[in-house]
Specification:
The chain is mostly helical. The protein has 2 domains: 2-100 and 113-182, no CATH class; 192-223. The chain has 13 helices and no strands. It has helices at 7-13, 19-34, 41-55, 73-98, 100-103, 106-109, 114-127, 131-136, 142-151, 156-170, 172-180, 182-191, 193-222. Helix 2 (19-34) packs parallel to helix 4 (73-98) and helix 3 packs parallel to helix 11 (172-180). Pfam families: VTT_dom. It is a multi-pass membrane protein.
Length: 223
Amino acid sequence: MEFANEPIFQWMSQFAYQPGMVYAGLIAMMALSAVGFPLPEEVTLISVGILAFMGAHPAHFPPPYEGAPVVNVHTAAIIAFTAVVASDTLIYVIGRVFGRKLLYHPRVHKFFPEHMMKRVEEWTHKYGAYACGIFRFTPGLRFPGHLACGMLRYPVWKFLVIDGIAALISVPTQIYLLAHYGEPILKYLRQFKLVLFGIIGLLVIYFVAKKIHQRWAARAASR
C-alpha cells in the first residue's frame, strides 16, 4: 500500500486507534446532520469506514502502541445506524408535539425556503407514510421532512419501520464498503485527491453561501 505513506492518510490513521473519540464524533455528526447541518452525513460515514479499514491493517498504519484499541467496523455500523434512527425519531417526535407552529416559526422557517417546504408537503401528501423513507435519502429535506411526518401524526411504529429500513440500506453499507474495500478506494482517492479536496471545498462554500443567502432573503422579506 504505497498510498499509506501519504501525509493525509498518515494523519487520519491516528484516529483509527481512538475508537471512543470516533464513536462520540459519529453520534454527534449523525445528530447534527438530522437537524440540517450543512455537511452530508455520507462524509462522516465514509471517513469512519476508512478509519475502520486503517485499524484492520496495522502493518500499513502502525498503532501508537501494541494492543491499541481500533475502530471496529461492526461497532461503528451499529452506532451509526442507532444514532441515525434515534435522531430521525427525535425530529419526528418534536414535529408531532409542536406541530406546524414550530416548522413555520420565523427562526426555523428562514433556514427552509418556501419551495423546499412545498416539496415536503407534496411528497407527504403523495406518498403518505412512505415519504419517511424518501426523506432519509434526501439530505436537504431530512429535517423538515421528518418534522412533517410527525406533524401529520403518522403512526410511530410505521415511521420507525420505514425510516429504519431506509437507514439500514444507506447507513451501515457505506461503512462496510469502505472498511472491506478500502485499498482500491484509497488508491483512487490518492490519484484524485486534489480534485476531491477541491470538490469538497466547493461544496462547503456552496452550503455556507446558500445559508447566508437564505438568511439575507429572510431578513429582506421581514422588513
